[in-house]
């Protein structure tokens, strides 16, 4: 498996859409970035937009019932809809 990086965007209390996202973690070229944390769906959209220009090879969102579900990929190692068995730290 390629390198896996977790990007935690979860929040503890209600927030407004203009609340900034946390800084991106270091992302090695071609890594799978897993976005995770309890947050509104629009915050996930903001995170995916931020990751679009990153060196990530693929992006997944973490579902505690399934694992990391790949939502975008630029590498044959991952395909959209693929579930990757990882657990956030």
From TrEMBL:
Q: Which organism is it from?
A: Methanothrix thermoacetophila (strain DSM 6194 / JCM 14653 / NBRC 101360 / PT)
Question: This protein is called what?
Answer: CRISPR-associated protein, Csx3 family
Among the Pfam families in the record, one is: Cas_csx3
């Amino acid at each position: 498996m390629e390198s896996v990086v977790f990007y935690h965007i979860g929040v503890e209390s209600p927030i407004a859409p203009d609340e900034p996202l946390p800084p991106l973690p270091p992302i090695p070229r071609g890594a799978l970035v897993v976005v995770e944390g309890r947050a509104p769906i629009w915050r996930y959209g903001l995170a995916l937009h931020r990751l679009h220009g990153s060196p990530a090879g693929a992006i997944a969102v973490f579902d505690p019932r399934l694992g990391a579900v790949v939502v975008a990929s630029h590498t044959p190692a991952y395909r959209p809809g693929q579930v990757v068995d990882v657990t956030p730290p």
